[in-house]
Design goal:
Layout (H helix, E strand, L loop, with lengths): L54 H10 L7 H11 L10 H11 L9 H21 L6 E3 H10 L6 H10 L5 E3 H21 L11 H9 L2
Antiparallel strand pairs: 1-2
Helix pairs in contact: 1-2, 2-3, 3-7, 4-7, 5-6
Length: 219
């Protein structure tokens, strides 16, 4: 199965992406001037410390309960209460499901606090990208603008793939913030799934049918 990217290097990326070393809400450095990154290379989990004075810890533990993890419905409540979506509509349950799947390394269907902190940093970077092109604060962007943001995040995709993506996530010719985030999550998760199997970084791999279904249907 060929990777939907261009030529040499690791398919789909123009260069090495920054890791998860930024503080919460800090813009990610990017290849496009004044455009924070939303793509990452290592996808390393957040390993920083936290304390009871951390507002995110308070939001998280109030909902997580005794098991210390949140499922999709709990994550939706947690993100809504945190106010990360700002003036945009709260995240849908389906978007929260794929957020969990993006970081769910042990396939529990839930998210721990370190994963939540990583998600928070990613969402902040994606939100800043979206706000940069949503100048009128309508909560939507146009199709060609999503293509520009995807390219600015460092993904090298063919025009055909970009067209398919924007059609999938648009409504009446516009893309809402929730759908934009869902698109970013799925693009990162699928790229991560592919990369783990492309050990030689050639841009193509062979999938066993069952492995392909497990990797894609879970996202």
């Amino acid at each position: 199965m060929a990777y939907p990217g261009y030529g040499g290097g690791y398919g789909g990326y123009t260069g090495q992406m920054p890791g998860m070393q930024m503080q919460m809400g800090q813009p990610m450095p990017g290849t496009v001037p004044n455009m924070p990154h939303g793509g990452y290379s290592g996808y390393s989990a957040y390993t920083g410390g936290y304390s009871t004075s951390d507002p995110m810890w308070n939001y998280f533990t109030a909902i997580a309960g005794q098991d210390g993890e949140v499922d999709a419905e709990e994550l939706q409540r947690c993100l809504t209460q945190s106010g990360i979506s700002g003036t945009y509509s709260p995240f849908s349950l389906e978007t929260c499901r794929i957020m969990i799947s993006m970081l769910d390394k042990d396939y529990t269907g839930k998210m721990g606090f370190n994963e939540f902190k990583e998600l928070w940093a990613v969402l902040n970077a994606w939100k800043q990208n979206f706000m940069m092109i949503d100048q009128d604060r309508s909560g939507t962007v146009e199709l060609h603008e999503l293509s520009q943001v995807i390219a600015a995040m460092g993904y090298r995709l063919s025009p055909q793939t970009l067209t398919a993506i924007v059609k999938r996530y648009s409504k009446n010719g516009r893309i809402f913030f929730d759908d934009y985030v869902a698109c970013c999550v799925k693009l990162r998760a699928l790229t991560d799934f592919f990369r783990r199997r492309d050990s030689m970084q050639q841009g193509f791999v062979n999938f066993v049918y069952d492995d392909f279904l497990q990797g894609t249907m879970a996202i």
